[in-house]
Amino acid sequence: MIRVIVTDIEGTTSSISFVHEVLFPYAAEHMAAFVREHAGEAAVKSALEAVSAEAGLGPDDLDGQIDTLLGWIAEDRKATPLKALQGMIWAEGYRSGAYQGHVYDDAAEHLRRWHDRGLRLYVYSSGSEQAQRLLFGYSLDGDLTPLFSGYFDTRIGGKKETASYQAIVDALGMAPGEILFLSDIEAELIAAESAGLHTCWLVRDGELPETSRAVARDFADVERYLQTASR
């Protein structure tokens, strides 16, 4: 029986366009000023040191670090220090009211239902844990963070790596067969299945793929899969 649901964000609970057309441009626009203003703070300094190490820059090359970060944003690179800095910048945007987190109505509705039914809910996204909390905390559907028992980001591993899902299983202390992973990316589902998790493929737009795995248009379809899988 499925007791835990781990969900992706982009294309699953939230629209891809919100991330790419709102959050990414906001971070790009404010990155240089934010880094220059906060470079001496411990969390920012640590992230910048990681940028330098990954990009082969000097530890005090602020211009090089900023250029690298902007390049990573443009290519949608899943770099942990970039995600950490983006989360800090997005926090300012959410708190100032510049935008609110997009969550599909069907996702918000069923996340509440599943929580009330006793299912444990977690997030696993390439965005930092802070960014995840912000999106759900400042969502158009209100503060959804009380629904979640925890958050996983790339610190636990890449989302297309089986070892990441094995680490999540260990962290949750559950049998893999008690966990359902939701994502819109097939390679992530394959990695999760290799670790023994149930999966459901969210395909919100376009033609449905020909596949033997569970496919859902929305969270109402996921609910139907849950009912079948729990029999």
Report on this model:
- The protein is globular.
- It has two domains: 4-15 and 100-229, 3-Layer(aba) Sandwich (Rossmann fold); 18-96, Transcription Termination Factor Rho, Rna-binding Domain, Chain A, Domain 1 (Orthogonal Bundle), CATH 1.10.720.60.
- Helix 1 (16-38) runs antiparallel to helix 3 (62-75), helix 2 runs antiparallel to helix 4 (80-96) and helix 7 (162-172) packs across helix 8 (186-194).
- The protein has nine helices and six strands, in the order E-H-H-H-H-H-E-H-E-H-E-H-E-E-H.
- The protein has 231 residues and is of the alpha/beta class.
- A six-stranded parallel beta sheet has the order 3-2-1-4-5-6, with helices on both faces.
In short:
The chain is an alpha/beta fold. 52% of the residues lie in helices and 11% in strands. Helix 4 runs parallel beside helix 6 and helix 7 packs across helix 8.
List keywords for this structure.
Transcription Termination Factor Rho, Rna-binding Domain, Chain A, Domain 1; 231 residues; single chain; alpha/beta; six-stranded parallel β-sheet; Rossmann fold; 2 domains
Task: Note the gap between the termini.
Answer: 8 Å
Strands of the widest sheet, in order across it, are 3-2-1-4-5-6
Which sequence of SSEs, written as H and E, runs from N to C?
A: EHHHHHEHEHEHEEH
Total E-strand runs: 6
Structural topology:
Layout: E1 4-7, H1 16-38, H2 42-55, H3 62-75, H4 80-96, H5 105-116, E2 120-124, H6 129-137, E3 148-152, H7 162-172, E4 179-183, H8 186-194, E5 198-202, E6 215-216, H9 219-229
